[in-house]
């Protein structure tokens, strides 16, 4: 009789009901701090912009927190465990996709760096011709070299951004205070990510050395 919105409910309606009745009802059933989870879900699920993988990751983790909190009260005829399992499966799938994309980006960056290093080595071993024709082409040679330097800089910037992504992931997984906005993933996953990063940096160093 006092419901803010009458059933049948959509997900948007449910989130509105959660917020409206949080202090009087739901805050006595689950921790009141989970209101931030409701607000996060409501804000992102109905925003007029596409999701990136980081946002999807956060939404899945916040959903897991909410389902887990209510499951401490009841399994609601088996519905909550099933929902929690499905969301967990989505989290794992998203993690695999993100890891594959990061690994692909690193491989591409390393390949380009290796090609550039080979080109520079060839140019360094090419005899310096002092002909008039070469002197006329000298300005264009500088332009090409400048473009190549910009390309190398762009690749290094891409590698740096990827390293930042790994750093963010690691801090979110290892810092307990970041749990409200990120996954509380296993240390094994964080360690594997670090190993990938170290291997990539080693390949880059070897390529630059060559």
From TrEMBL:
<protein>
    <submittedName>
        <fullName>SWT1 protein</fullName>
    </submittedName>
</protein>
<dbReference type="InterPro" id="IPR052626">
    <property type="entry name" value="SWT1_Regulator"/>
</dbReference>
<dbReference type="GO" id="GO:0005634">
    <property type="term" value="C:nucleus"/>
</dbReference>
């Amino acid at each position: 009789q006092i419901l803010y919105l009458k059933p049948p409910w959509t997900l948007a309606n449910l989130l509105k009901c959660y917020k409206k009745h949080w202090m009087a009802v739901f805050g006595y059933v689950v921790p009141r701090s989970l209101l931030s989870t409701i607000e996060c879900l409501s804000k992102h699920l109905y925003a007029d912009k596409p999701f990136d993988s980081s946002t999807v990751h956060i939404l899945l983790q916040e959903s897991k927190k909410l389902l887990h909190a209510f499951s401490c009260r009841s399994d609601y005829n088996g519905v909550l465990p099933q929902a929690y399992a499905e969301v967990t499966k989505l989290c794992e799938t998203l993690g695999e996709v993100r890891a594959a994309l990061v690994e692909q980006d690193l491989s591409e960056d390393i390949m380009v760096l290796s090609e550039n290093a080979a080109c520079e080595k060839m140019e360094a071993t090419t005899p310096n011709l002092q002909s008039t024709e070469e002197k006329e082409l000298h300005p264009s040679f500088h332009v090409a070299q400048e473009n190549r330097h910009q390309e190398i800089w762009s690749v290094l910037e891409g590698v740096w951004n990827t390293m930042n992504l790994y750093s963010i992931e690691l801090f979110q997984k290892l810092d307990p205070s970041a749990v409200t906005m990120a996954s509380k993933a296993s240390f094994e996953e964080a360690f594997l990510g670090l190993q990938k990063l170290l291997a990539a940096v080693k390949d880059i160093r070897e390529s630059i050395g060559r």
